[in-house]
Amino acid sequence: MALVLFGLTVVSGLIDAVSYLGLGHVFAANMTGNVVVIGFALAGAPGFSVLGSATSLGAFLLGAVCAGRLPRHRLRPALLTETALHVLAAVVVAVWGTHGAVQYPVIGLLALAMGMRNGTVRSFGVPDLTTTVLTMTLTGLASDSRPAGGSAPRQRRRVLSALTMVAGAAPGAVLVLHHQTTWALVAAATLTATMAVLYRD
Questions:
Q1: 28-52 pLDDT, tens per residue?
Q2: Interhelix angle for 75-96 vs 181-198, to 10°?
Q3: What is the pLDDT of residues 20-34, one digit of tens each?
Q4: Is residue 72's pLDDT more than 80?
Q5: What is the DSSP code string of 26-94?
Q6: DSSP state of 71
Q7: N or C: which end of the chain has fewer CB atoms below 10 A?
Q8: CA 119/CA 168 separation, integer angstroms
């Protein structure tokens, strides 16, 4: 189970690299970031979009609702659906690119996938492996550490969570910056499908 969740954390890094760098500074996996970005946009900061972040938030919440309708602990159907949504997003980008109004359906597809996954993973309640958010994981890493007077529980898992996010974000960024966004999405779909195969109920 842990291996699958680490793999999905890599995918989250890939997806947020695509969405933030290639789709107008919007997060598809990290919803805290979108809430902050909406604040930036409302303040008139250049390069940020209320519509883009609101699209992502809405699609993510819809995905989480859909996850709630699945039987608990049914990760494989959610991952296969996520794979299909990544593939569909890759097709849209390959055919129409990421500029103009086409970015909004791509944002929606990616955020819908992340919402479904996040809602499903949440039902397992695995500590420090949410696959999309690291704030509480990093807080636990520091506040439970030996310098803080703690016993450093799950320290390796917490560090690996951060490293796997970077392991997805870095190559995702390289692909987007070299105008290979479609391949970043194909990589995300392939890795998600692999995790679905590896997962055992």
A1: 999 999 999 999 999 999 989 999 9
A2: 160
A3: 999 999 999 999 999
A4: no
A5: --SS-HHHHHHHHHHHHTT-TT--HHHHHHHHHHHHHHHHHHHHSPTT-HHHHHHHHHHHHHHHHHHHH
A6: P
A7: C
A8: 21
Determine the length of the chain.
201
The 10 Å CB-count burial string (b at 16+, else e) for 38-60 is bebbeeeeeebbeebbbbbbebb
Tokens of 137: 């994981």
2-198 has which CATH code?
Answer: 1.20.1250
Residue type for position 191: L
- For residue range 93-124, list pLDDT tens digits in order: 999 999 889 999 999 999 999 999 999 998 88
Helices 181-198 and 2-22: crossing angle in degrees, nearest 10, is 160
User: Which residues, other chains included, contact 142 with Cβ-Cβ below 8 Å and sequence gap of 6+?
Assistant: 148
Amino acid identity at 120 = T
Which residue type, as a one-letter code, is found at position 14?
L
3-state secondary structure of 24: coil
Query: What angle do helix axes 50-69 and 103-122 make, rounded to 10 degrees?
Result: 40
